[in-house]
Amino acid sequence: MKRKDFIILLWISLATAFFFFFFFNQEMTLENFAITFLISAMYSFIIGVGNGVINEFLNKKFPWSEETKKRAILSIISIVIANFVLVYLCNYINFVIIQKVATTERFFGGDYNFRNWFMINIALLISAFLHAKSFMSELSKTSKKEVVEQKLIAKSANAQFESLKNQLDPHFLFNSLNVLSSLIDENPSQAQKFTASMSKIYRYVLEQKDKELVTIEDEIEFAKTYCGLLKTRFEDSVNFIFDVKEDYLRKFVVPLSLQLLLENCIKHNLATSSKPLLIRIFTEGDTLCIENNLQIREQIKESAGIGLSNIVQRYSLLTKKNVFIEKSEDYFKVKLPILSEKPNPASIDTKSQDKAYERAKKRVKEIKGFYGNLISYCTVIPFLIFVNLYTRNNYYWFWWPLLGWGVGVASHAFQVFGIGISWQEKKIQEIMDKQKK
């Protein structure tokens, strides 16, 4: 326990001592106040420190945020057993050792049962408050931690996404200038046309590179223009086939994905008029496919691997759907997932997270309700016992609310932490699963 906790226990001891000294003490002497203060301090520190140590031990071994159900059950069992032992210990020291108003046989014989039970309820109140406070504190810390973590994840995802998109601009420009450099030597007139077309295409690159997703229609139109540039350079050595269903044109893919894959086809394969390279762009299921016949070119310099890896990483930040790569002896195919809507890269699982949050919120509300019920029980019942005993009524009516409400608290605990709603949900799910078979 912290130093602050001991100071609080000291103030509680002092306040309790003043209360009993002025209302239940016949001789107002300094000696009597000192004795009252020592007895109050004994109760406060033994019960307070005992409960505090148990609470800290449970916090370390069974945190509320990780093992809520197990922690709640252990908390209930521990506070009942611990406070029973601690109260009997304090009362024994007080009445048998310090005040010497009872013998050991009389103390355990039943004469002090009501006093012990009254003190146990007071101790349960303090302990329940400590555990409820611990639960709310842990819940608050966990919530703040999760918010910070989600913000960091969002910032990291956005930074990573921006970094990936920024690769496209210099990458496209570098490859286009390589093509232009080759054309200047081979066909100067075609190089002029290529330069004009390249400026048009580069405008599209600048417009789209800041977007997370673009429509397949826009990407196909851009790819056709880019294929026109490649045809300018390779003429009959490269052929293109576009077979994209109209139903998919308004759906989405990552921008410049086709351009990067078309570059890869040209870069890694031989293309001659006698052995032309055939590139097909078509839809297959919920994927946009780019396929080419394999005519592998020997690479003098190792590839930087920007194209395909860039696409894979950008998709991973936007969706759980994977980019698939198929390779055989005859062809190489890349399947890009077609997305029906624009997701947020920092919150791919927003819907599932919202459902999980609602379930967690409902669970927290149930647990808070139980602890509210328990604290009320531990507050009101000792007060009723005190009133019943203080009025010296021979009829001990406090047993009725004590037992009746106690059964209600036990039933509430059983519902929240035992066979309750979660059991019903599991049985419903089991029945639904059986009906599906």
Automatic annotation (TrEMBL):
InterPro entries from the UniProt entry: 2TM_dom, Bact_2-comp_sensor_kinase, Sig_transdc_His_kin_internal
Domain spans labelled 2TM: 358-433
Protein name listed in UniProt: 2TM domain-containing protein
Provenance organism: Chryseobacterium muglaense
GO MF term list: phosphorelay sensor kinase activity
Domain Signal transduction histidine kinase internal region per the UniProt entry, residue ranges: 159-237
Annotated Gene Ontology cellular component terms: membrane
Transmembrane domains' residue ranges: 7-26, 32-54, 74-97, 117-136, 370-391, 397-423
Organism superkingdom: Bacteria
Keyword Transmembrane assigned: yes
